[in-house]
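Handover notes (outgoing to incoming on-call)

Open items:
1. HPP family protein: sequence verified, structure written out, both below. Nothing else pending on this one.
2. Nothing else urgent.
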Amino acid sequence: MPYLQQLLKSAGMPLPPKPQPSHVILAGIGGVVTVAALALLHGSLELTLLLGSFGASCVLVFGFPESPFSQPRNVISGHVLSSTVGLLFLTLFGPHWWALALAAGLAISVMMATRTVHPPAGSNPVIIFLAQPTWDFLLFPTFTGAIVVVLVAWIFLRSSKRAPYPYYWW
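HPP family protein structure tokens:
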């Protein structure tokens, strides 16, 4: 039992502070507005702008706009780089479990090496291997959708005075 207790022992850090209720509400509304914009554009432009990882991007951008992971550079570049790696591995090696695993690992490394880490984008290779899209996926939904997420966040966070988003652009 002492070994199990030692194994499960945490670093002893306290929970993060509870966010202000207004921040919680604004983050939720920001997510609604962004996903609605993506869905409406998806329906009206006959383009696919919805990507599952964009929901997680909204959590970061609206819930934690001060985080480096939430900045435009990270949101856009992280999504584009991870999708590029996923499409490259799918094209070169086909839909094999090991190619997916390598693509996911390389996407993480590329984002870290380029200082463009955006955790939701780490799921893009998985999405690509499941959907098996063409290279158009890089423009629609990846790049265009990431731009929409950033633009809505910029307008919404500035107008709500929730945060001086972004802290840096590029």
